[in-house]
Design brief:
This protein is mainly α. It has 3 helices and no strands.
Length: about 100
């Protein structure tokens, strides 16, 4: 997946004949990372609030609450994986851009 990201940047540069579109693509990826991190924070807070509420009630955790906590945990893990992938793509774009500028 990471090499396809580098290929995307190369294709954008070739088609646009400038670095403007490639730069906009990098900005998009970085904004996406920021948005995903914000979403991650909200879901972690929501999961923790639910967990604290359930634990404070001293009642056994209902199946519904357990499923909600498990669902939020799975969603959090997916978001973390997505952020790591996007950060890897962003790093590869930087390395590729540096290599391209060194060739010029």
């Amino acid at each position: 997946m990471a090499s396809s990201s580098s290929n995307n940047v190369n294709e954008i540069k070739e088609v646009s004949w400038s670095y403007n579109t490639a730069t906009e693509f990098k900005i998009f990826v970085n904004n996406r990372i920021t948005q995903d991190k914000g979403c991650l924070i909200r879901y972690v807070e929501e999961r923790n609030e639910l967990r604290n509420k359930v634990e404070a009630s001293q009642d056994p955790i209902s199946k519904r609450d357990r499923n909600s906590i498990n669902m939020l945990t799975a969603l959090i893990n997916d978001i973390i994986d997505g952020i790591r992938e996007l950060e890897g793509q962003a790093k590869l774009m930087e390395v590729h851009e540096q290599a391209s500028s060194d060739e010029d």
